[in-house]
Amino acid sequence: MSHDPQWIHTAIRKIEADFQRSADTHLIKLDIPSLDGIDIYLKDESTHPTGSLKHRLARSLFLFALCNGWIGKDTPIIESSSGSTAVSEAYFARLLGLPFIAVVPRKTARKKIEQIEFYGGRAHLVDSPSEIYEESRRLAKELNGHYMDQFTYAERATDWRGNNNIANSIFDQMKLEEHPIPSWVVMSPGTGGTSATIGRYIRYQMHSTKLCVVDPENSVFHQYYKTRDASLTGECGSRIEGIGRPRVEPSFIPDVIDEMRTIPDAASIATVHWLEKLLGRKAGASTGTNLYGVLQLASEMKARGESGSIVTLLCDSGERYLDTYFNTAWIKDNIGDISGYLAQLEQLEQTGQLS
Ligand SMILES: *Cc1c(COP(=O)(O)O)cnc(C)c1O
């Protein structure tokens, strides 16, 4: 079916105009004196209009679908999401005047569902995280809509060679730092799209930077990285919203990754609480996963007497998770005791060593 070209032109112009009015996100340098000689940076993706790095992905997915001729004037947009992507896509669907339905797991943060609805979208709840794909496909067929399918298209909808993608922006913002070419970039995978973009960009620019990908518990990505068994599945969903998947997503590209680590969920949660003291701001739990991985690498570099820089992402704000990751009772019931990791992080502040 071919769509009205005039409408497509207008739609692309609206998205590009929205981009033209936007500013880039900040690269924040952390102040950790005990890690003298090792500089740590957070790319703050929480300041996008829709609150997370998924703003970039949603923009790319809409442009990709428009240029492919997949959506037109009245096409309902359907997406499977653990929340953040749906919030950002609801924003762009509203910009184009298209109906939007997000298929999300029932346990998704209330705040995210409210934000999907705030942007005029509808949340369609399913019981298990592994149901979202089939239900999205079914709905798209029933409504004659388009299933955006972030988990398939994230890695190819983004311009990996540059065009102000996230890697391009990071390396540009690092230019005047003491160690402008990072020793490591650390990222956690949801779709795997961001780590694919960063890994490809590093190779294309011929940098010596290594990419470390950090996985939460209850995710199949790390196991897949080791075995390359694409049929792996998990029963329960990840407890760290935005990252860790119960199946190997097509957008996860293992061969651009230099190293993978699994970070305990309790360490991720402890790290966002520790970061709040350092930054005066709350971050989402995946930022804790990222930063704990960074601190492991930094303390290993310190032990080897190396200096350099490490960059990771602040993926979204913790304000979305006040009733979970920032609620003591919820942590105790769902994650357990985080005091051991908090003590470890305090020790890092004293000695520059994590363990
Ligand atoms: C999606 C997401 C990630 C992971 O990014 P991908 O590019 O999908 O791998 C990390 N943190 C949060 C909060 C996210 O929403």
Automatic annotation (TrEMBL):
Record's keyword terms, sorted: Cytoplasm, Lyase, Pyridoxal phosphate
Enzyme Commission number(s) from the entry: 4.4.1.1
Ranges for domain Tryptophan synthase beta chain-like PALP: 24-316
Modification sites for N6-(pyridoxal phosphate)lysine: K54
Pathway: Amino-acid biosynthesis; L-cysteine biosynthesis; L-cysteine from L-serine: step 2/2
Cofactor(s) this protein requires: pyridoxal 5'-phosphate
Keyword Lyase belongs to the record: yes
Subcellular location: Cytoplasm
Catalytic activity annotation: O-acetyl-L-serine + hydrogen sulfide = L-cysteine + acetate; L-cysteine + H2O = hydrogen sulfide + pyruvate + NH4(+) + H(+)
Broad EC category: lyase
UniProt GO BP: L-cysteine catabolic process to pyruvate
The organism's place on the tree of life at top rank: Bacteria
Gene Ontology cellular-component annotations: cytoplasm
GO function term, MF aspect, one: pyridoxal phosphate binding
Keyword Cytoplasm among UniProt keywords: yes
HAMAP family associated with the record: Cds1
Reported function: A cysteine desulfhydrase that generates hydrogen sulfide, H(2)S. The H(2)S produced by this enzyme may modulate central metabolism. A cysteine desulfhydrase that generates hydrogen sulfide, H(2)S. The H(2)S produced by this enzyme stimulates respiration in M.tuberculosis, mediated primarily via cytochrome bd with a lesser contribution from cytochrome bc1/aa3. H(2)S modulates the balance between respiration and glycolysis, and also contributes to redox homeostasis. Probably eliminates toxic levels of Cys (which can induce oxidative stress).
Family the UniProt entry places it in: Belongs to the cysteine synthase/cystathionine beta-synthase family. Cds1 subfamily.
Protein name: L-cysteine desulfhydrase Cds1
